[in-house]
């Protein structure tokens, strides 16, 4: 199972065996019907463009690539894919795509979150709400005018979710800890296509799991993170 697990119970009432007897062409037709142009298949000309990850050494060839632009799109994609008996993998930039390519992707819908970007800064609580595919550069562009920064890593084009939920070691780590500890809450679409909020006091098991497991437990459509009160920072590596 890659990323989000397929739901064992089907809303259409079909037993699992019937779903897996369905040919891939039928599954493709079901996805196209549900998702329209938000999904691209291997025989289509856009496939090579939409499947290309940040890391060009990874030749990822999933069954289909879906590109949501909103949380509702993510819900629709997860429901359509699991109903068709397909597996799902979340990807924001593809920095870690070589690891994903170690898995057979022939029945995987790759959900690429590059169109789901945006940051809202809340200076009064020194926090930010970050959409699921946002990069660290998006956060710094939004926080700097407020004299604030975040526990970002060394690369501005790494995604906030992929970095934060897998640990997140920054120049500030000695003084302020790991990025994962700056995550206050996450909005997650789970394997049954439900959008839920997970935090220290809501869906606490899921919050525990995504902080370390990220894409294994759902697709994160937004994160709420703590910010730091630094207007100017000078940092670097000494080799
Ligand atoms: C040039 C470079 C510099 C780096 N510098 C640092 C650094 O300073 N400190 C540090 O700690 N790390 C650093 N890293 C490592 C980087 O943080 C990880 O590779 C990170 O997982 C990349 O996240 P991504 O989302 O950009 O990549 P992706 O390959 O898109 O995703 C990585 C993982 O996160 C999951 N994921 C991504 N988005 C979502 C989402 N919205 N919902 C659910 N799951 C999601 C994916 O399923 C996958 O398992 C660096 C990596 C590179 C290539």
Mean pLDDT: 90
The hetero molecules present are: flavin-adenine dinucleotide
Number of E-type strands: 9
Q: What structural class results from the helix and strand content?
A: alpha+beta
The number of helices is 9
Major sheet summary line = 5 strands, antiparallel
Sequence stretches where pLDDT stays below 50 over 5 or more residues: 4-20
Task: Please state the overall shape, judged from the principal axes of the Cα atoms.
Answer: globular
Spatial sequence of strands, sheet with the most strands: 5-6-9-7-8
Percent range of helical residues:
25-40%
The SSE string, one letter per element, is HHEHEHEHEEEHHHEEHE
What is the highest CATH level, the class of the largest domain? Alpha Beta
What does this structure look like?
- The protein is of the alpha+beta class and 239 residues long.
- The chain has 2 domains: 16-112, Uridine Diphospho-n-acetylenolpyruvylglucosamine Reductase, domain 2 (2-Layer Sandwich), CATH 3.30.43; 119-226, Uridine Diphospho-n-acetylenolpyruvylglucosamine Reductase, domain 3.
- It has 9 helices and 9 strands.
- It has helices spanning 16-21, 24-35, 47-50, 71-83, 97-100, 136-143, 160-164, 173-176, 204-213, and strands at 39-41, 64-66, 87-91, 108-112, 119-122, 127-131, 183-189, 195-199, 219-226.
- A 5-stranded antiparallel beta sheet has the order 5-6-9-7-8. A 4-stranded mixed beta sheet has the order 1-2-4-3, covered by helices on one side.
- Helix 2 (24-35) packs antiparallel against helix 4 (71-83).
- The N and C termini lie far apart (40 Å).
- Residues 4-20 have low confidence and may be disordered.
- Flavin-adenine dinucleotide binds next to strand 3, helix 7 and strand 9.
């Amino acid at each position: 199972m890659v990323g989000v697990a397929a739901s064992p119970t089907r809303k259409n009432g079909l037993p699992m065996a019937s779903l897996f007897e369905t040919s891939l062409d039928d599954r493709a037709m079901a996805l196209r019907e549900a998702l329209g142009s938000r999904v691209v298949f291997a025989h289509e000309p856009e496939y090579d463009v939409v499947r290309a990850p940040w890391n060009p050494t990874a030749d990822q060839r999933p069954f289909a690539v879906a590109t949501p632009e909103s949380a509702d799109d993510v819900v629709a994609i997860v429901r359509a894919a699991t109903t068709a008996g397909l597996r799902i993998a979340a990807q924001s930039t593809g920095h870690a795509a070589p690891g994903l390519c170690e898995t057979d992707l022939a029945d995987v819908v790759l959900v690429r979150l590059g169109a789901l970007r945006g940051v809202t800064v809340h200076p009064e609580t020194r926090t930010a709400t970050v959409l699921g595919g946002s990069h660290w550069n998006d956060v710094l562009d939004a926080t700097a005018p407020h004299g604030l920064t975040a526990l970002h890593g060394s690369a501005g084009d790494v995604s906030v979710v992929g970095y934060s939920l897998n640990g997140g070691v920054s120049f500030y780590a000695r003084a302020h800890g790991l990025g994962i500890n700056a995550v206050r809450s996450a909005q997650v679409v789970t394997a049954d296509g439900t959008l839920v909020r997970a935090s220290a006091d809501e869906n606490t098991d899921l919050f525990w799991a995504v902080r370390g497991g990220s894409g294994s437990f759902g697709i994160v459509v937004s994160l709420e993170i703590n910010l730091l009160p630094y207007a100017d920072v000078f940092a670097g590596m000494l080799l």
